[in-house]
Amino acid sequence: MAGGGEKTEKATPKKRAEARKKGGGVARSMDLTGAVVMLVGLFAIHSFGGTVAAHCRETMDWTLRLIGQPEVVSARGLPSVIMTVLKHMSLAILPIVGACAVAAIIVNVIMVRPKPTMHTLKPDPKRLNPMTGFKNIYGPNALFEGSKSIVKVAVVGAIVAAALVPMLPSLGGMIGMTPEQLATAIVDDLYGIGMRAAMAYLVIGIIDIFYQRYRTEKSMKMDKQEVKEEAKQEQLPAEVRGAMRRRAMQNSRARMMAAVPEADVVVTNPTHYAVALKYDGSSPAPEVVAKGVDLMAARIREIAKESKVPIVPDPPLARALHASVEVGHQIPEELFGAVAQILAYVYRMAGKRRVA
Known about the structure:
The chain has helices at residues 13-21, 30-67, 70-76, 78-112, 130-138, 140-164, 168-171, 179-220, 224-235, 238-259, 295-306, 315-324, 336-355, and strands at 265-268, 273-278, 287-293, 311-313. By secondary structure, the chain is mainly α. The chain has two domains: 13-220, no CATH class; 260-355, secretion proteins EscU (name from scop), CATH 3.40.1690.10. A four-stranded mixed β-sheet has the order 3-2-1-4, sandwiched between helices. Strand 2 (273-278) and strand 3 (287-293) form a beta hairpin.
């Protein structure tokens, strides 16, 4: 059976292309993006800081003059005055915000090499699964990311502290300076500290992008049988591959329909989804023996009625089973409780019928 061996082979171009169509298969590093944005932001502040300060000073002067002229404020209206202040402040910081936004876009384009796809916009019930969300928050990957964040903060904090501590004795001599003098005295020192922190963050980001690429490549690996079967498929003409896929789908559907009479229960949406479950007691969990949507679901319900297999409407469970469990696989642990209630109800009803 394909896919049963150890995954030691690099992903083929076909698998990479399929992953890209689904919006995956690429490595992303939020740390690298954050480091680049931080560096560009510092450069922008250093370059445009004087202009921003001048705009802010002019806006503050204008606002203070208006305070002494309440009749002017009343005439113009307080909302109009507030909007004017916000407009001037926004224009003042626009170059810095724009530089950071452009930097973020460029670094993400370089990392991801965008390829438009509509697949990620399709609704996916798996994203609404609370157990999946719990695993994403508290799983091994989340613990690793949390540890990485702690190390990142510790490293950057240590570098900032190493640069700041030697400056503390000289800060006492700044008492009594005017705001302009104080800003002039410390702005270069603060810029230097910020650049050290940003460079440390950049190193962490570069390490992280290499790790993310390693992790992505590892998740994309295939076993030797998968590679052989894919190569065999690629050598066949397109018409033959299409006919084989259609025949495989037909055989799969026939096997599903043949398994419905042996099911213990069919869970429905009640019209759009249908999932047939079987539990013989020898396996750890119930197994999905058939599932379908719309016409396929109608056919499953029809066979279930003919075979006197109980049909139980449960829209959330039907959608969850259809989205997360393949035919022939056992249900996941997070659905044990809901399925157990359904089976208990079915067995209870069957027992009452036998007594009657």
